[in-house]
Amino acid sequence: MAISATSIARNCCENVARICLVLLLLWAAGAGLARAHDIQAPGYKSAAWWLKNEFTPSTLTPEEQLAELRWFAEAAKPFGGMHIRVVSERIDTHWYEASILAKAFHDITGIHVVHEVTGEDDVIKKLQSQVRSGVNIYDAYINDSDLIGYHFRSGEAIKLDEFMRGEGAAVTSPTLDLQDFIGLAFTTGPDGHVYQLPDQQFANLYWYRADWFARPDLRQQFRALYGYELDVPQNWAAYEDIAEFFSVHVKELDGQRVWGHMDYGKADPSLGWRISDAWLSLAGAGDKGLPNGQPVDEWGIRVEDCRPVGASVARGGALDSPASIYAVSKYVDWLKQYAPPEALRMNFTEAGNWLQKGNIAQQIWWYTAFTAALTEPGTPIMYDDGRPRWRMAPSPKGAYWEEGMKLGYQDAGAWTFLKSTPVERTKAAWLYAQFVVSKTVSLRKTLVGLTPVRRSDIESDVFTERAPYLGGLVEFYRSRGRELWTPTGTNVPDYIRLSNYWWQWVGRATSGELSVTEAMRGMAGAFDTTLGELSERMSGPCSPKLVKPQKEQDWLARPGAPKPLLTEPQQGRTLPYKEAIRAW
Amino acid sequence: MPGRKRAIRQCLAGLLMGCVSAVQADSRDTIDLVSFEEPPYVMSDNGGAKGLVVEYVSALMDRAGLRYRLDILPAKRALLFALSHKNACVFPIERSQEREVDFHWISPIQISRHGFFQHPDDVPVSLRVLEDAKGFRIGSYLGSGIGAYLESLGFEVDYAAANSANIHKLMARRIDLWASDEVSARYIAGNSQFTLAPSPLVFFTTVRAIGCHASMPTEVVEVLNDALQAMHRDGSFMRIKKNFEQRSVPSEP
User: Fold this and answer.
1) Distance (Å) from the C-alpha of residue A13 to the closest C-alpha of chain B?
2) Per the CB < 8 Å rule, is A112 touching B95?
3) Cβ neighbour number for residue B221 with a 10 Å cutoff
4) Angle at Cα A138 formed by Cα B145 and Cα A92, nearest 5°?
5) For residue B13, what pLDDT is reported?
6) Among residues A298, A282, A284, which one has the least CA distance to residue A487?
7) Is B110 in a helix, a strand, or coil?
8) Do residues A562 and A555 touch, judged by C-beta distance below 8 A?
């Protein structure tokens, strides 16, 4: 084939144009960010692709995002081709990380992350297995900050503040901005060290059907029956009245059987955290003082200085006190009297999605992790314009609750690294942990899972625009409520062992095998025994040390928890929504 | 002082173990252990049993000073047996939140990595995250925690009576992917004269455990867990594994 000078010139021009285009693309991708495999392997995408197609909106400018991703690509170079493994619980936020962010991280850094998603109890049992066996099962765990009491006492978890200054300095992002994390206090031990990096947060709040509560016919009927307004309940007496009103008196709305209460009762680990998260604290079983009550916390454990000294009333605790028995009795009674019969056999996940059916009037505390699921369009609990028919508000308080006590529970799933993981693997996993909470991806992740951890995301204009569609979530996270609603505190020295007792003993009360009093007595005894064992295994100034039992009456006669039996009945009290959320 | 505490604790543990042994010998039956075919961890052997996990459990029971009988049953039946018989335990089952309430647990006896395997003649599929396997027909076996896990996530799972049947289903293209413990899959395939390509995605980790009937005395469970922890820490399990692998497990291609 003859080649003319013109065609050579044309080819030359085309080649120059192609080279220019490639150079332009490389520049756009962040001057060399597009790794060799981004271009060669089908299915792999460049940082520029991820910025344009996934990581928007962001609180950073595109240039800042690109610079942040460039840092991740550079810092990850020594670990390229490595496979790491992490595990977390089963909620929308973590599915997004496991399915989308792990892929993006692989494309950008060359580190392949298998992000496993499983039950929360499974996560902590796996963490316990790594501690027990010394085998490197995972390179990182996203485990609830409820374990902070264990992490700071056990010596098994890496102190992240030390790691970031020391051997992890080269793999710690300069744009991490720790002070931007709203839950950092939850993951910091009493010794001042940061043990975990928050990844997602959700709160326990009262949930109710604002559209039903606004119906004039129902309001009138309620007022006639109970003598006050059908609004947001401020105490358990009002909650109980509303539960009875819908389950017993209203019964049917628009041809559908409706219920005034929702909960779950299956003897399963998730029953344990249902009870330990909030029932005792909102009943008022513990002491005043945030975050968890001092000297008796919301688990009924008494501490002296920072040492757990007992959970039974005989040892100054409150786990089998009249207030705790009242709390669990209300839980069992309402579940059986006012919730759908199926609820008795449900667990956390099953009950969480039940509200979508549109036949529940209220729930005393509901996990905001389900906000994404409950704002799906087209369900009976949504208006056609995308606004929810429901609202979240502060939970009502029980008869023993006093001003200055814990207002509610907040869950903070946080990155945890064990010392038994080889340091190079820890470094690679630490990069992934920072990536999934980086400002480049954080706002987008927050809009998907609705479990915010960064102040910058919460204060963003995007969050303002979303507020009318999220039932009060934005208002809660912009208020001081995000600090007042707290996770399990540092009094609990071994969450993994002690949390088992909650579902094992309360499950026996739910099934009727034991009375509530017998169950709480049994549980308090089991707690004391375990605290005694832990005092042998743990050392240090905050290790448990049981005090000798005394007459219960002596403890009950002193101020604070454990508190004596109250015989005065609570009077139901409600407030309009706008006044009720002032507690935030 | 921690040193003194430790000594007292060891002394008490020794006494307790002695008490437990005495209780076992005096008033209780020998523990009925049941397991199921899962080569190379558990395999029938002329009316008895052999395999890596059988060796682990045997060493553990010796360390704890407990007497036992061991039977091999189909996986589902083994599970049901331990659920319904006092003084019975089943191994090596996957410990999970769903099963937590059913048993007293002695764990971890084994850490399993579960991967997808495909027909050796197929073009390798690109699986980077679990979600990528949606749309494939996945083979597992009855009683498998991993099959139940995938099914709960909306995957299409096809169950065989035993895991060893899945290699034949894969070769006959009755399933697209075989979800299995990695070591088991390689061993089963090797025994059937097939060579599997490396798994395109090792997607899940399970803690394998001994699950004992809910009525098993807490003291026995604690003695077994303490012995297990000591064996992990002093390298006993590592030595058993090394020794076993030198004898039997085919290596990955």
Assistant:
1) 38
2) no
3) 18
4) 65
5) 47
6) A298
7) strand
8) yes
Query: What is the number of CB-based contacts under 8 A between chain A and chain B?
Result: 88
Tell me, letter by letter, the H, E, C secondary structure of A467-483: HHHCCCHHHHHCCCHHH
Report chain A residues whose CB lies below 8 A from the CB of B202.
114
* Residues A400-421, mean pLDDT to the nearest whole number: 96
Question: Are the C-beta atoms of B169 and B139 separated by less than 8 Å?
Answer: yes
Is A471:A81 a contact under the CB 8 Å cutoff?
no
Alpha helix ranges (H) inside B125-249: 145-152, 165-171, 182-191, 218-233, 236-247
How many Cα neighbours within 13 Å face the side chain of A473?
32
Q: Which residue has the tokens 């995938």?
A: B150
Closest Cα to residue A421, out of A140, A82, A124? A140
Q: Which two tokens stand for residue A406?
A: 């814990």
Neighbouring C-beta atoms of residue A42, cutoff 10 Å: 5
Is the pLDDT score of A23 beyond 80?
no
Residue A278 has what DSSP assignment? I
What average pLDDT does chain A have?
A: 92
Give the span between the Cα atoms of A143 and A208, in whole angstroms.
Answer: 29
Dig out the tokens for A192 from the structure.
């001042």
Could you tell me if A518 and A558 are in contact, meaning their C-beta atoms sit under 8 angstroms apart?
A: no
Best to test chain B binding among A115, A125, A503, A546 (most B CBs inside 10 Å): A125
CA-based nearest residue to B149, from B109, B94, B186, B100: B94
Interatomic CA distance for residues A389 and A399, integer angstroms: 30
- Is the pLDDT at B186 greater than 80? The verdict is yes
Q: What are phi and psi of A142, to 5 degrees?
A: -95, 100
Cα distances (angstroms) measured from residue A377 to each of A146, A380, A384 = 33, 9, 8
Name residue A80's amino acid: G
Sign of CA dihedral A412, A418, A423, A428: negative
B126 touches chain A (CB under 8 A): yes
- Provide the strand spans (E) within A357-491: 362-367, 390-393, 410-416
Least Cα distance to A35 among A65, A86, A70, A6 occurs for: A70
Q: How far apart are the first and last CA of chain B?
A: 53
Backbone angles phi, psi at A461, to 5 degrees: -65, -35
**Which tens digits make up the pLDDT trace of A530-563?**
999 999 989 889 999 999 999 999 999 999 999 9
Q: Which backbone phi and psi does A537 adopt, to 5 degrees?
A: -85, -35
pLDDT at B250: 54
Task: Note the pLDDT tens digit of each residue in B118-169.
Answer: 999 999 999 999 999 999 999 999 988 899 999 999 999 999 998 999 999 9
DSSP character string of A33-75: -S-HHHHHSTT---HHHHHHHTS-S-SS-HHHHHHHHHHHHHH
Residue entry with tokens 């992890």: A168
Give which of B13, B11, B62 is closest to B33, Cα–Cα.
Answer: B62
If you count them, how many residues does chain A have?
584
> ipTM of this model?
0.83
Q: How far is A275 from chain B (nearest CA, A)?
A: 16
Tens-digit pLDDT profile for residues A208-251: 999 999 999 999 999 999 999 999 999 999 999 999 999 999 99
Residues of A in Cβ contact (< 8 Å) with B232: 132-135
Which positions in chain A have a beta carbon within 8 angstroms of at least one beta carbon in chain B?
42-43, 85, 87, 98-99, 102-103, 106, 112, 114-122, 125-126, 129, 132-135, 137-138, 267-270, 503, 507, 536-537, 539
Q: Is B205 on the interface with A (CB under 8 A)?
A: yes
